[in-house]
Amino acid sequence: MHRKELSTPALTIDLDILEDNLNRMAHYCKEHGLGLRPHTKTHKTPELARMQVDRGAVGLTVAKVGEAEVMADAGLDDILVAYPVWGVEKLRRLAKLARGRNILLSLDNEATACELSRAMAAQDATIGVLVEFDSGLGRCGLEPGIACVELATKVTKLEGLRFRGLMTYFGSIWGTEDERRAEAAHVAGRVGHAIRGFEDARIPIEIVSGGSTPAALLTESIPGITEIRPGTYVYNDLNTFYQGACNLGECAARIVTTVVSTAVAGRAIVDAGSKTFSSDLLGSGPKSGYGYIVEAPDAKLFNLSEEHGSVDISNSASRLNVGEVVTVIPNHVCATVNMHDDAFLVRNDQVVGQWRVAGRGKIR
Amino acid sequence: MHRKELSTPALTIDLDILEDNLNRMAHYCKEHGLGLRPHTKTHKTPELARMQVDRGAVGLTVAKVGEAEVMADAGLDDILVAYPVWGVEKLRRLAKLARGRNILLSLDNEATACELSRAMAAQDATIGVLVEFDSGLGRCGLEPGIACVELATKVTKLEGLRFRGLMTYFGSIWGTEDERRAEAAHVAGRVGHAIRGFEDARIPIEIVSGGSTPAALLTESIPGITEIRPGTYVYNDLNTFYQGACNLGECAARIVTTVVSTAVAGRAIVDAGSKTFSSDLLGSGPKSGYGYIVEAPDAKLFNLSEEHGSVDISNSASRLNVGEVVTVIPNHVCATVNMHDDAFLVRNDQVVGQWRVAGRGKIR
């Protein structure tokens, strides 16, 4: 079946592009002696996580305990929950996972460490801990320096916890390549500061985990990082493209959608809205709209209602008639994938398989 | 269990508020002789649809065939699919639904009518058809007037279709009450024009369906409307509040979320981001951020990452410490509910039940 024969709207993944993306990142990490611990939030799919591990990933990253459970249920191990989880019920599940598996958690405060320790001790489990520091984004994470060392020292004293190193998210590395390079230099200073704190205190750190997709291929300019956690690179999206961190041919995910109305002059309405794409606008270029219509790049997907995508065709050479099927590269693929129960796999536009997005909706 | 003891993040529905909202709209419609055909896109929950029908709703509205199936599976009937569905697979399912049930579909073009007729004829089914006209939003729908009459005339000649009337979406009625009243007058002109076309052609119209939540209580100023399709009114949200169409005490849905990090000065991070709230900003007041924190109204939820909500607490009297649980009224509740598999029901803050959001993710 051609992908345009799918019942729409549908999420499709081009396997050739995906495999190239996986290989490129695996190669970069191998070449630079970096561990690759991909963030699975983008795909939420154990089958794809397995492909990453088969290509040499040292482990996986998730944000939620429920996502870790999905990966563990599929037989995957060595999972970093890159999130300061709080709450008795979730920590109980996390401790259960940590029995007999290699699980890590990042945190940035003593209260969370104490709660985590209590949960682990109750089930006689052990979990690895990374202390999170802020490399410039200002979201989670301690200031590099003494605060990190103090927290790590406390962690080493708590039952069921094993201090294994540091974590930061390179979310501040964003924008054009020049902007990203400049910010990477700033981040490198903060990473160096964080590491020196531990050297001065003579506390060994096994892991220094960083990363994000726009920063991934700049990691060589940030000394001390031992592993990275890019997520988006598997599929890429317009956000990544507009930062110059991929080209359109490296975008593996598309929404297949049908034109359902052209009753209003200058407009075509497609059967995919914010409940299919998500309503994430493009960080780096709001002018580009809500997605790139491959078959009509001069038509602008300028508005999304919940189930309607409004396309401005007044300046487009394409005639988008009712019933015509188009494919759209989304702005933010992580948010888009999370709207779908299923992803359809294609090669040369032919549907060759289907994945369940098993981690979708695992918000706890 | 108190709602703050739920594992977070979680969607909670206050049943007392919900029931008041349902009763208020049912009363308005009864008082003004209007049919109420609520749009279930907001809640996607058959149990709540049943509450609406029990309070006198003449039927239900959905956007997708999959949503209609969920409602029909729960024994609900008289369902308007307010969407110009295109595609063989979906129309086959729709025809199956229409056998033995009262199903309606809205459409605005002949091609869709022909496809629909073919699908109905193949299964010896009959479906009601509403011709959609544009009352001012400029999304779907024909211009009021001759175009509508011509399409209706074609519909009456097609096998398996029964022309039943007109439909429009009052999406242009938006903003402050003054703005909404002014636009309602404009909409009334277009509705009148549409109806007169049929009077002139001596084609009887049984149904003239309009509505939206911000416009619902203004329907009396739009003559000719026989039924309305508000959705959001069941739960309300900040969008509705900032238009003056509800007060905060009439907002029934809240996200329960836990503070997980305060490592960065002036900020608290909660465990709910765009994968819990959706990233829909507030149409009428972007300054208000991504939600209203009931326990700390002076703290601003200024940014959402996928799983992190960033709260500016620099001007807040509240101390949001790690582990503290807060409840947040979302900006756009339809988009928020769609992120959740479950809704937890509360009365007086005590959890008294749970609904599955059975229609979530039914994008086809």
Explained architecture:
Two copies of one chain form a homodimer. By secondary structure, chain A is an alpha/beta fold. Chain A has eleven helices and 17 strands. In chain A, strands 1, 10, 11, 12, 13, 14, 15, 16 and 17 form a nine-stranded mixed sheet that branches. The first copy, chain A, is elongated, with a radius of gyration of 22 Å. The two termini of chain A are 37 Å apart. The mean pLDDT of chain A is 96. At the A-B interface, α5, β10 and α10 of A face α5, β10 and α10 of B.
Structural class of chain A: alpha/beta
Task: Give the fraction of residues assigned to helices of chain A.
Answer: 25-40%
The profile of the biggest β sheet of chain A is:
9 strands, mixed
* Biggest interface, CB < 8 A: A-B, 64 and 63 residues
Cα separation of the termini of chain A: 37 Å
Which regions of chain A contain 5 or more consecutive residues with pLDDT less than 50?
none
On the 0-100 scale, what is the average pLDDT of chain A? Answer: 96
Oligomeric description of these chains: homodimer
| SS elements, strand count of chain A | 17
How large is the share of residues in beta strands of chain A?
A: 15-25%
Number of contiguous helices of chain A: 11
- Based on CA inertia axes, which overall geometry of chain A fits? elongated
Helices and strands of chain A, in N-to-C order?
EHEHEHEHEHEHEHEHEHEEHEEEEHEE
Radius of gyration of chain A: 22 Å
